[in-house]
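Hey, weird one. I pasted the Dihydrolipoamide acetyltransferase component of pyruvate dehydrogenase complex sequence into the form twice and got a warning about non-standard characters only the second time. First submission, copied straight from the form history:
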Amino acid sequence: MADIKTFHLPDLGEGLPDATIVEWLVKEGGSVKLDEPMVSMETAKAVVEVPSPYSGKLLKVHGGAGDVIATGAALAEFEIDPKMPQRAEAETTGHHHAPPKAAKGAGSEAPDHKGVVASDEGGEIVTNNNAGRADEGTVVGAMQSSDRVHAEQAMSVGGVKAVPAVRALAKKLGVELARVTPSGAGGVVTLQDVKNAATAGTAKIGAVAAADASPGAMRAQPSALSPQPSTAVPAAAQRTAVSAAGKPMRTTPPTVTATGQPEQLKGVRRNMARVMAAAHAAVVPTTLSDDADIHAWLPGNDITGRLVRAIVRACKTVPALNAWFDGENLTRTLHPHVDIGIAVDTDDGLFVPALRNADKLDAAGVRAAVNRLRAEVESRSIPPSELSGYTISLSNFGVFAGRYATPVVVPPCVAIIAAGKGRHQMTPVMGGFESHRVIPLSLTFDHRAATGGEAARFLKAMLDDLALAQ
C-alpha cells in the first residue's frame, strides 16, 4: 500500500496566520524531490518558495493561485517514493506543520477545504454548508482561527488578472502585463508567464505590437463587451443584489472591478489590518506635536537624512523611547543601537523595513540605505527579516499631505515619529517677523513605558538637532 503523506502549511514568517498561493511550481501528478521548490506563496511580508518536504508524487493540492491558506492547514498530499531520499521522521524542518486546533465555538469545515467566502469571479458567497454555524463573535484583537481555505482570484486591473507579486515582477522586468498571454486558471497571468515574456522580449513596456497597431486586426476580433444576438433574458433583469437564498452576490462581470461588494483582504493589507487592531488593543498611546524650525538649513540637506539623524540624537539623549515594552510581563528593554522602521506606502499596503544601525551611518549612508529599502519593497524582494526588529519608527507622511497625526505604535516598540508637510510660517525675531520654513512633528509613545516628560525631552532633542544649519 502506498505511503500517503499530508503536508500542512508551515509558518512562513514570524507568527503569520496565513499565506496566499501565487503559483504551483509542481503540478498535480508530477514528481518532486526533497527540498525542491514546490509552490510560491505570498505572505504579508514577501513572496517565498516553499520546498517539498518529501520525495515522490504530488497527488493533490489544496488550493490554486490566489487562494489564502491558513498556517497549519493542509496544503498538499504526497505519495512517498521509498527509493528516493526522504527526511527522517524525527528530523525537524524548522517549521510547525501540525494542523491548528479548532477554535472554541467554531463549526467544522468541510473536508475538501474549498469554501468560497468572497469570490472575485462573481457568484454567490457560499459557506460550504455552514449555514447552521454559530456566530464566532470575532472582535478586534481576538480573531477566531480555522483551517478554512479562502478561495480568492487574482485582482483584475485594466482587464488583466494577476496577483500583486506577479505585477511587481512585471514592473521589475519591464513587462507589460496586458500583452502577456496568461496560462493560469481563469486567464490569470502567472510568474512563469511574465518570465517567459521577459525572455522572449515580446511584451516590453512601450513597444507596439503589429496586431495592436492594425485597425483591421482590431475589427476582426470580436469584443467581449459587444452585445451578441441572444434569446436569453437581459442581464439587467437577471442580476440582483442577493441570490435566491438571500445571500450577497456580485452584480458586475468578472472583468470589471466591483465596488460596494465584499472583498477579502490579502497579503500586506490583511496583515496590516491585524497588526493595527492588535496595536490599538494593546498600547496606551499619547501624542505630542510641535514644529521644527529649519530656517537655518543650508542647501543640500536631505529631509529624510536629517530626520533620521535627529531621531538618533534624541534616542541617545532619552533612551526610554528607543526601547521595547512587554505589556504582559511589564518589562522594558533599552537598546544601545538605533534601528529605525521606515514606513513605505505602496498600492498593496504599508511596509515598514528596518534601517539598521542608523546611529552608525552618515548622511550618504542613510540615503543609500533608504533608497535600497524602498527599491526592495517596491519589487517585493525584501527579505522578511528586514521587516521586523526595529527599535523605533518614522513615518514621513508629509510627502503627500497633512501636518500632524496620531501614528500607531506597534508593539514591542515604544514610540513612532511622524513628519508632516513642510510649510512657511511667520516667526517673531528681534525687530519684527520673518517667514521661516517648518516641519510639523508628531510623537506617539506608549504611556505605559515612558513618561510625558521623557517624551517631551525626546521631542525637544529632535527640534534642537533639526534647527542646526547642517
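That's the output from the first submission. The warning seems to come from a hidden character in my clipboard, not from the data itself. Residues 283-466 form a domain with the Chloramphenicol Acetyltransferase fold (CATH 3.30.559.10).
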